[in-house]
Structure formats: C-alpha cells, structure tokens
Amino acid sequence: xxxxxxxxxxxxxxxxxxxxxxxxxxxxxxxxxxxxxxxxxxxxxxxxxxxxxxxxxxxxxxxxxxxxxxxxxxxxxxxxxxxxxxxxxxxxxxxxxxxxxxxxxxxxxxxxxxxxxxxxxxxxxxxxxxxxxxxxxxxxxxxxxxxxxxxxxxxxxxxxxxxxxxxxxxxxxxxxxxxxxxxxxxxxxxxxxxxxxxxxxxxxxxxxxxxxxxxxxxxxxxxxxxxxxxxxxxxxxxxxxxxxxxxxxxxxxxxxxxxxxxxxxxxxxxxxxxxxxxxxxxxxxxxxxxxxxxxxxxxxxxxxxxxxxxxxxxxxxxxxxxxxxxxxxxxxxxxxxxxxxxxxxxxxxxxxxxxxxxxxxxxxxxxxxxxxxxxxxxxxxxxxxxxxxxxxxxxxxxxxxxxxxxxxxxxxxxxxxxxxxxxxxxxxxxxxxxxxxxxxxxxxxxxxxxxxxxxxx
Length: 457
Ligand SMILES: Nc1ncnc2c1ncn2[C@@H]1O[C@H](COP(=O)(O)OP(=O)(O)OP(=O)(O)O)[C@@H](O)[C@H]1O
Ligand SMILES: [Mg+2]
Fold this sequence. Notes:
This is histidine kinase. This protein is of the alpha+beta class. Helix content is about 55%, strand content about 20%. The chain is built from ten helices and twelve strands. The protein has helices at about 5-55, 60-70, 95-100, 145-200, 215-260, 270-300, 310-330, 350-365, 410-415, 425-435; strands spanning about 75-80, 85-90, 115, 125-135, 135-145, 310, 335-340, 345, 370-380, 380-390, 435-445, 445-455. The chain has a five-stranded antiparallel beta sheet with strand order 2-1-5-4-3, sandwiched between helices. A five-stranded mixed beta sheet has the order 7-9-10-12-11, with helices on one face. Strand 1 and strand 2 (about 85-90) form a beta hairpin. Helix 5 runs antiparallel to helix 6 (about 270-300), helix 6 runs parallel beside helix 10 and helix 7 (about 310-330) runs parallel beside helix 8. The longest helix has about 55 residues, at about 5-55. It starts with a helix and ends with a strand. Adenosine-5'-triphosphate binds near residues 393, 407, 420, 421 and 448. Magnesium ion binds near residues 357, 360, 361, 419 and 423.
C-alpha cells in the first residue's frame, strides 16, 4: 500500500462511511417508526371492532364474551363504564394498566385514541375506544399489547441492520482498495519511471499510454520526455566522440610533422613544408574550437539577439558586395534577386554570419564558371531567402543530416577544403533563435538550395 492510495483510501472511506451511516440511520428510524405505527393502528382497530359489537349489545354476556375472546390473543382488553368502573378484563391488571385506566377521559374521538406508545420503556402499548350509545358515552374499550414482542421485533431488525452494515463496510473497503489502486497505480508507475529516468535508465515502458484521459496524457508526456532525454544523451555522446575524433586527426598531423621537423638532417625546404602543414592544422583546430564555442554560446542562450528592423535588400546588397571578390576569385558570379523592398526584424551581425556560412558552402562546393543566386520571395506572412548554387549537390541520404553538428558528406573532401561541419549547425541555431525555419533541397550533381523562412515584420 503506497502513501497516495492510503490517503485517497482513507478519504473515500470516511466519506462513504459517513454517507452510509446517515442513510442507515434514516432507514432504521423510518422502519421502526412505521412498524410501531402499524402496531398501534392495528391495536386501535381491534379495540374499535370490539367497541362496535358492544355498542350494539352493551350487556353482560357480550362484555364477557369480548373479554373471553381476548384471553386467547396476545392482546388484552379492559372494558369500563363511563365513570371508570371495570366491567371486564381479559387478564390480570398490571400497575401500569391501572394507571392508564385511572386517567381522565374526555371527548375521545369515535375512532379511538392512543394512550400509551412508549414501547421502549413501558410494558404495554395501549389504545382506548369509546362506547357511544344514543350520543352518550357509556363506557370504554381499552386495548393493551405487550411490548416484548415489539422489542423482539426491533432487536431482530437491529441485528439485520448490523449484519447489512458490516457487509456494506466490507464491500466499501474492498471497492476502495481496488478503486484507489486503479487510480494510483499508473501514477506510481510514472513515479518509478521518472526515478529511473533521472538515474539514466531510458528503457522505460508505461502501459497506461492507451487511455485517453489526463493520466494517459501524462504518461505520454513522460514517454516523450524519456525519448527526448535518450536522444539528447545519445546526441551528446556522439557529439563528444566526433569532437575528439575531429581533434585527434589534426593533432596527430601536428605531432607527426613536428617530430619530422625536429629530426636531424632535414633540409630547410622540407622543414618549411612541415611547418606549413602544422600551421594549417593548428588553424583548423582553432577554427573548430571557435565554432564550437559559438554553438555552445547559442545553446546556453547566453547570446542575446539584438533585433532591429532592417531593410533586407540593402542588407543583402552590402553582403553581396563584401562576398563578391571571393566568388570572383573562383570565377563564380554571385547574383541577388528580389521583388520589392521588405523590412525584417533580425540581428544583423548574426545574420551576416548565416549568409557567410551559406555562401561559403556554395562557393566551396561549386566549380568555377558557375553562378550562385540569392533570391528573396514573399507571401502574406513570410519572407523566403534562398541561396541557390549549381554545384555538386548533396546525396539524398545525407540531406537530413547536414544541419547536424560536425556532419560532413565527404569527410576527406571536407578536410581538404578545411570544413568542420559546423557551419550549417550554426545557421540553423541562429535562424531558429529568430523564430525562423531553415530547409535544404538538393540534387546530386545539379545543385543545392538552402531556404530561410522568416516572419514578415
Ligand atoms: N551548397 C552545398 N553544396 C554541396 N554540399 C553542401 C553544401 N552545403 C553544405 N553541404 C554539405 O553539408 C556539409 C555540412 O555543411 P557545413 O557548412 O555544416 O560544414 P562544412 O562546410 O563542411 O564546414 P564549415 O562550414 O564548418 O567550414 C558539408 O560538409 C557538405 O558536405
Ligand atoms: Mg560550411
């Protein structure tokens, strides 16, 4: 039994028991009262029927006959005259009976009257019916009934109630037990799952996922969380592995060529060659570290984007002007196309980096005599800025991964061109920090198109 179901169970129990007690109380008192009522009505009716006979023949033999009839029944009768003189009785009088007989009787209704109903404390309950002849009350018929039979009946009723009550409590406890289990079990399962999640065990399964209520929703969220965490953890491990791999290669080169350069008998020319390689590799490492640092900053959200409203055409024009020489060097033409003036909310420094990275790729992966286009398109809500080249393109199998960190289509080729595989990852982070989306489409051997989608300001 866990804490939650115990709490819930006790709460349910207290609540249900209270309701059951109240119901039982009303049922019991209602039953008892109506039983007593029945007894009294019956007794009075019996008295009335005796009285009816006596009204017709108020003489000795009839009186005697009536009294005789009652000696065999479990009720008793006492017949008196108007002034209280006892004419006949079916049994010996008890002190309580005498007390009742001595009470003053005035204007008793024809249908009779209950004179004693205290069944709990008295020995008898009692009614009286008047004998009226020619509009004159000439006597009374007193009826008595022993209360022990009533008390027996009530006590057996009590026993029944006790039995049913105990059963009800038992059923309540059992159903509460199962109910709270049904409610709390998934919660407990989820607690265990989240516990093992925090310990790093992602192989969790929750079987409540099918239900459509809030609990199902919660377990779906937890499941998703577990998957995400798992993914993040795997990504991190992969990332660390690739970083150390990335660093190991240039470091091996550096160490190897440094060893070679140190050797005796190396010509000046050879040594210079080695030093150049060492320098190149060191540059590569420092670029890698710089880019990684950049990404880490973006990840921690410690970099704030300084949004400003910029005329996109002017911004891109300046950029193209800056980049043109590099493209011209390789004999590639860089064009800019746009439909109309448009303003966007961007961080210009960051966005310059975005386009430098994209154009750098296009330049790197295009042959000379080709063109690279920047095109701006609009719809009602969005601005689409595309960088299009007609270079070597990206294989379909690699396309989904090019925005991943350290991902390069062709590792050896990229090494030659000095790529680290972080350029597009940085692009993606920056664009998403602006609330934008970046997508890529490419055909191997035909070219690549990278599109940035931003909200119109
Ligand atoms: N325009 C393109 N044409 C062909 N392949 C591309 C293009 N842009 C990206 N790629 C492929 O996607 C990979 C990832 O690109 P990304 O810019 O992230 O890394 P990189 O260019 O290799 O290195 P870095 O940009 O850090 O110098 C590249 O290695 C390349 O294989
Ligand atoms: Mg790049």
